[in-house]
Design a protein that fits this description.
The longest helix has 18 residues, at 79-96. Strands 3-2-1-4-5-6-8 form a seven-stranded parallel beta sheet, sandwiched between helices. A two-stranded parallel ribbon has the order 7-9. Helices cover 44% and strands 16% of the residues. Helix 5 links the parallel strand 5 (100-106) and strand 6. It is α/β, with parallel strands linked by helices and 287 residues long. Bound molecules: NADP nicotinamide-adenine-dinucleotide phosphate (NAP).
Length: 287
């Protein structure tokens, strides 16, 4: 029986596979990907590459064959589509005889959260619990990696912009979240029906993040508190879909209410070390 990771050609999934190879032989690992041709590097390592898509129950059920534990990495679509996709993935896992599902959720999943994608994760968490399968819910906080997107503009203009005000957010790196997922997949029996809040070790403001950028680059970067409508206009100008613009705008509305400011010790519990700080991450990425 194998351990399978969906979305293994995505950014988080790629890192989960890398970390899991430190715990399991490649022959015990399978991946489900939408485009097997993008996973030839994984196949070359001896990983069982399977074709899967959350839009296709039959394909997904075949992808989960002979799998004991599976990580479902949440997909990317509007709420109604993604809720249906995740339910299909859970149905497929159950039909194929998977014993334990691990899922990448979000901190504090709620139906009424300003971060609109939160409702997807609440639905998927509940659907997994109702499936009767063993589960582990990884409630990931927001990726520190996303902060790098604003750096080129900040270096050019001096303004690190976001509609964040004094909001504190427990950003954590994608790599740390991947390592936590791999630790769970390597020893699922010690994480049965557990829910982990995977946050950074400190909630940081965007003023602090601007200072990290300034200190590392030596450029006079400061935080610029963008009006919400300006932020939405900028996101729209990048051609992002409306549902993503709405979710990103809502993230900051919720963060200003304190939704993502609570630090948890769960990362330390799962991985056995503290998460990398946002300051260390930014310094390393910008040097
Ligand atoms: N916590 C955060 O801050 C944060 C930020 C952004 C996103 N997320 C969530 O975390 C997930 C993983 O993050 P990431 O950085 O790895 O994103 P990513 O690089 O965009 O990867 C998303 C993965 O989802 C897969 N996927 C999309 N639709 C699918 C479908 N219908 N069936 C099966 N797989 C599907 C993609 O497959 P392909 O490789 O075939 O495209 C890809 O591998 C995202 O999808 C999103 O739900 C969290």
């Amino acid at each position: 029986m194998k351990t399978l990771i969906t979305g293994a050609t995505g950014q988080l999934g790629t890192l989960v596979v890398t970390h899991l190879l430190n715990h399991l032989p490649a022959s015990d690992i399978a991946v489900s990907v939408r485009t097997p041709g993008k996973a030839t590097d994984l196949a070359a390592k001896g990983i069982d590459v399977r074709h899967g898509d959350f839009d296709d129950l039959g394909l997904m059920t075949a992808a989960f064959k002979d799998v004991e534990t599976a990580l479902i990495i949440s997909a990317e679509a509007d709420n109604a589509t993604r809720i249906a996709q995740h339910r299909t993935a859970v149905d497929a896992a159950k039909a194929a005889g998977v014993k334990h599902l691990v899922y990448t959720s979000i901190i504090d999943p709620r139906a009424d959260a300003d971060f609109t994608y939160s409702a997807i994760h609440l639905d998927t968490e509940n659907y997994i619990k109702e499936s009767g399968l063993k589960y582990t819910l990884l409630r990931n906080s927001f990726y520190a990696d996303l902060l790098l997107a604003g750096v080129p503009h900040a270096l050019e203009t001096g303004d690190f912009g976001a509609p964040a005000g004094d909001a504190k957010i427990t950003y954590i790196t994608r790599n740390d979240l991947a390592e936590a997922a791999a630790m769970v997949l390597a020893n699922p029996q010690t994480h049965v029906n557990a829910t982990y809040d995977l946050t950074g070790g400190k909630a940081v403001t965007h003023s602090e993040i601007a200072r990290y950028i300034a200190d590392t680059t030596g450029k006079p970067v400061k935080f610029a508190d963008l009006p919400a409508e300006v932020h939405v206009g900028i996101l729209g100008s990048f051609g992002l879909p409306d549902h993503l613009v709405e979710a990103l705008a809502g993230l900051y509305v919720g963060a200003k209410k304190g939704d993502y400011a609570t630090v948890s010790n769960d990362f330390q519990t799962v991985v056995g070390r503290a998460p990398q700080s946002v300051q260390e991450f930014m310094t390393g990425a910008l040097k």
